[in-house]
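User: Hey, my collaborator sent me this sequence without any context and asked if I could get a structure. I don't really work with proteins. Can you help?
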Amino acid sequence: MALIVYGTHVFTKFKGYYGMKEECPYCHRKYQKGYVRYSKWVHFEYIPLFPVKILYLKMCPICGKAYELTGKEAKEQMEYANETSEQKLEMYAKHILAKKPKGIMACDTSYEFWVKDLVTGEEICIASDLAKEEVKRMKKQRGIKKLQIIDV
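Assistant: No problem. I've predicted the 3D structure and written it out in structure-token form, which is a compact way to encode the shape of the chain:
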């Protein structure tokens, strides 16, 4: 008896920060918007075959609120934007070990998601009391390849 595995998988890729600094209507911070490419692929036996859907998101690097763009719009905006970006952001997570729960059924919600502006030195806590799965979801949503987790 053979098991055939098929389905879809979403790949994310961070494309960069483009354009002028704009104020986010949600967090009211002024930063260049980040562009993330999402591509949904059909796979067979864990081998990606062809893309089904490709979309771009223009998102606030701080709060993560985004809106969808077509490929043509996104490429146009990235092409005509100012390439010399002074914006340097580092994203990381903190694991507060002192708040780690005890017990078999306890859920570890002692993670915090942080953004550090390397130009100004400002550190911004985006979310706290997160489970590790939520941190992974935020990492994937923002197109981050590696996210440093600091034990505190």
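In plain terms: Helices lie at 71-80, 132-141. You can pass these tokens on to your collaborator as they are.
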